[in-house]
Amino acid sequence: MGYRFLSHTADVAFEATAATLDELFAEALAAFTDTLTDPEGVKERLSRTFELRAPALDLLFVVWLEELLYAFEIDGHLFRRAETRIEQEAQGYRLTAEAWGEVRDEERHGLKVLIKAVTYHGLEVTETPEGWRGRVIFDI
Q1: Domain spans of the chain?
Q2: Coil, helix or strand for 123?
Q3: Pick from 32, 23, 27: nearest CA to 140
Q4: Cβ-Cβ contacts under 8 Å for 56 (sequence gap 6 or more)
Q5: Residue-wise pLDDT tens digits, 80-94
Q6: What is the DSSP string of 23-46?
Q7: What is the pLDDT of residues 15-61, one digit of tens each?
Q8: Which residues have C-beta within 8 Å of that of residue 123, sequence separation ≥ 6?
Q9: SS3 label, residue 11
Q10: Which fold has domain 15-129?
């Protein structure tokens, strides 16, 4: 499966699809990085562990992307791939992830666009007959 960018007048939207929920969140990381820069130029020089919680799957999708945006804005981290695990808990859902990437090098990682925020407009995380689909719009 994978991800694709959707037509949007002012912002950047993507749809990710995957056989499992865990893979869907990993695909979202790939789409996030591809929005910012060419993911082929991102090397796996560091790893970072994430543990996040939210009361609903779609909210966890946003929290995950917001955390990636925070890691980029504060630490300059760009991630090439991630292994993610989603678990249902009494109060909602938990994401545990390890992501691999590197600190942005301005000479090697030219920016396509700068993401200002992850929005809730058009947000969707849905189970389909083929697996899972997630959609989100980035404010740029």
Answers
A1: 15-129
A2: coil
A3: 32
A4: 92, 93
A5: 999 999 999 999 999
A6: HHHHHHHHHHHHHHS-GGG----E
A7: 999 999 999 999 999 999 999 999 999 999 999 999 999 999 999 99
A8: 58, 61, 62, 135, 136, 137
A9: coil
A10: Archease, Possible Chaperone; Chain: A; domain 1 (3.55.10)
SS3 category, 22: helix
Q: For the chain, what's the residue count?
A: 140
The first and second tokens of residue 98, run together, are: 């390890």
Residue 82 · residue 99 · CB < 8 Å: yes
For helices 57-75 and 21-36, give the axis angle rounded to 10 degrees. 40
CA 44 – CA 1 distance, rounded (Å)? 22
Please give the distance of CA 74 from its chain centroid, rounded to a whole number. 16
Number of H helices and number of E strands within the chain?
Answer: 2, 8
The Cα–Cα gap between 30 and 78 comes to 10
DSSP 73-119: HHH-EEEEEEEEEEEEETTEEEEEEEEEEEE--TTT---S----EE-
Q: What SS3 state is found at 7?
A: coil
